[in-house]
Amino acid sequence: MQPPRKAPMMNTGIHTGTDTDLLWSPGRRELEDSNVACFMEWVSEERGLHFSDYAELWRWSSTDLPGFWSAVWEYYGLDSVTSYDEVLSDASMPGAVWFPGARLNFAERCFAQATDARPALISIAEGGAPVETSWQELRRQVADVAAALRRMGIGPGDCVAGYLPNLPQTVVALLATAAVGAVWTACSPDFGTPSVLARLRQAEPAVLVAADGYRYGGKTYDRRPEVAELADGLPTLRHLLAVDNLFATPTEPWTARAGIEQHAWSTLPAAESPLEFAALPFDHPLWILWSSGTTGIPKGIVQGHGGIVVELLKALGLGADLRADDRYLFLTSTSWMVWNFLVGGLLHGSTIILYDGSPTFPDVNGAWRIAERTGATMVGVGAAYLAAVEKSGTHPAAEFDLKPMRSILQTGSALPAGTWRWAYDRLAPHAWLQSICGGTDICSVLAGGSPLLPVRVGRIQGPALGVALASWDTGGRPLTGEQGELVVTAPLPSMPLHFVGDPDGTRYRAAYFDTYPGVWRHGDWVTVDADLSVVVAGRSDSTLNRMGVRMGSADIYSVVEQLPEIADSLVIGVEEPDGGYFMPLFVVTADGVALDEALRERITTAIRRRLSPRHVPDVIVPVPAVPRTLTGKKLEVPVKRILQGARAGDVSSEGSVTHPEMLDWFADFARPPFSPTPGRSVFPGESGAR
Known about the structure:
By secondary structure, this protein is α/β, with parallel strands linked by helices. The protein starts with 21 loop residues before the first strand and ends in a 20-residue tail after the last helix.
């Protein structure tokens, strides 16, 4: 299928804000030759459906689900791969059934646009040079690893886990796992061993693909001792595939545990036959992504081959306007869902850029240095990183050649208004800044960019195609121009198939459908204006979201409350009006124990070692008690609302909590001179500590 080359000019919509809010407007190329413009013309010619603007297209896409998703299927050539019985045989949430009868494979579709004209991968490590991997070489490596997995007896029903940084081998391992029909999951090696085991034990992997270490911030980290701990802690493990990233090819075993066979990645034998892909049902599990673990152990979110294929074709193609000739870079670890979103670029024949290192190495402009060296045309970053570069006072547009960079994907948290303007003033005046909101839950975008719409300060351009997004009040009534809960009222193909270890779906329903039965509640505060532009104001639940990485409070409690000096604790993440993020840890000390600097240091050291530096709180504050519901749940969301300015009496009903006097305590804490900066006074006689 060849998409049309041209689409008619169209109305882009008018926002009620002032012209000074306008940062970017679509030009002729976007209006006529962007992927979504060509899709609109294709729909007009093939389906007889005519849309004058993005708003009309979105309304159709989010209400006629069979019509829209069958159009995506055909437009991207999936009709030549497999047939299906119907598009959506059951539209229930949860439990929607998409494309029954279809058979396909994510890895096979990642090679569908392979070409000799461009590399598949460009990898670069801190201080290193870019290394290109051709499509042919990528296919050969995937074939070798897939053959090795088959020799290990791995196939549908098995799990392969990665303990890997952002390397080419990580992409190869994912594609090889998908090719044989097994389930992939991964944790970044900067996670502490307890955090990794809390996830991987649930997945019950038969194979662990592990790197010997990684580079970050100018340092190298040997992870072989941690790999040994993981092997000891994963009872289902039968094979360890050792990746030599920092050190020589291993000749000695990394684990002494009996029953585990170790294989060296670099000495795997060549496959004896061409790469074969298991033909799998649409809803066959592809990978497990992990929730942050806010309310207990992390939830294993299982997503399917077919749902991810059609969603990432749509989201990256019709939303982000990713093209085959793009060089697509996302600054991420392998534990963040945007790593999977990055690999999805292969579905479009794009070259994906894998950076193993810190975006602030050797200085705050490390990411732009990588973009320049690799010729990146689309760059994804977290909002916190953009704000850090802005505060540094540097001028990336003057210091680096970023002219090839036609678009910036910004995600992770809300971007301060000043940073939006800075991006166009000093970073990339020519580029299209796409602010996107989505998540691990769907491995995609709920609201984001469109090349057909203008970019305005502080606003996401609109709901993504196919996403029935709305803002609802507590009674389930839709709101326009008012803040409410972000909900999705119709199913999406990449919504979870199920959670790991949740056979009756209890945890799945509780995560998204308890508040509004049959309607997905995402856990964000959102405002949707009449022009469909979107403002996301932060989490409406207790998930921590620091530097774009969602983290669970339960992980922190599991470390802090193991210390004998700590009787109880409460951690809160607060989005601030200036775009900052304040994460205090409140602790109740054991009888006779004072929270002095030595104890603070023990707490931060334990968190850093067992979790990650991202989990370390901004301040540690002693409190008399931690308020709870009568069923024993810590009042994380009510306390967060108090710290954001709500009155104590408005966040909890009388008689519904233990230690109700603590709500007034937190209200006093939040009053001026409340100033969440390092070293501020956080309690009478105490001072904050990083």
